[in-house]
Design a protein that fits this description.
188 residues, 5 helices, alpha+beta, binds zinc ion, binds acetyl coenzyme *A
């Protein structure tokens, strides 16, 4: 069949416009957030090992992905995954002082490769994951633990509306304390 270059080019440019205007995936800051798939596992484990002392078996990642796929996200830039977030959906007491049961989106781990920090990737990963936890898993609150010395992460969470609700003494294996920080998911 003879090629008709006009048609495909037209279709592609239309798609690009729609993609950019919607702004759902391709961010203007030059990164793209999407859901995790199993073929991303090796790279995500690599990022975790580079960025955090809390490391997990591949079973642990697979288990979280199988149970809560919609809040396990990755961020791509320069053709490679540079950040991830993974969550567990739990039922428990509100962490925010309300004497009521709640559906909680527990951020188990988030990290962004050092070279790609301070571009808004961490913020976007949390914002999208929490919005999905609210919409898809019907969660009321988000919460997480973070080392009290981890100023970048505490700064990020505070900026997104999380507040410190409790100090867990000696929470980490090396004896450091954790802040428990929580947020109402109506914010997302
Ligand atoms: N110092 C102070 N505030 C900071 C810093 C910093 N180094 N980094 C981010 N913030 C705050 C700022 O308010 C920032 O907004 P601004 O840049 O407009 O000032 C805001 O957070 C958003 O920053 P992002 O660019 O979205 O965050 P980034 O993509 O750099 O990722 C992260 C932040 C994930 C904490 C990154 O520093 C990282 O991977 N650190 C190592 C791993 C880690 O500590 N993960 C969290 C462990 S706790 C847990 O996983 C539940
Ligand atoms: Zn935790």
């Amino acid at each position: 069949m003879p090629l008709n270059p006009a048609k495909p080019v037209y279709a592609i440019s239309l798609n690009l416009v729609g993609f950019t205007l919607k702004g759902q995936n391709l961010s203007s800051q030059g990164f793209n957030v999407r859901v995790f798939t199993i073929s991303d596992l090796e790279r995500v484990m690599h990022i975790n090992a580079k960025c955090l002392p809390e490391n997990y078996s591949s079973y642990f990642y697979r288990d979280l992905y199988t149970k809560y796929p919609d809040t396990f996200l990755v961020a791509e830039a320069d053709g490679e995954i540079q950040g991830y977030i993974m969550c567990r959906i739990e039922r428990g007491w509100s962490k925010r002082g309300k004497l009521s049961a709640a559906r909680l989106a527990h951020v188990v781990s988030i990290a962004v490769m050092e070279k790609y920090r301070r571009r808004g990737i961490g913020k976007e990963l949390i914002a999208q994951s929490m919005a999905r936890a609210r919409r898809i898993y019907d969660c009321d609150e988000g919460y997480l633990e973070v080392r009290v010395s981890n100023e970048p992460a505490v700064g990020l969470y505070t900026k997104l509306g999380y507040s410190k609700v409790k100090r867990n003494y000696g929470y980490y294996l090396d004896g450091e304390d954790a802040w428990v920080m929580a947020v109402n998911l109506d914010e997302f």
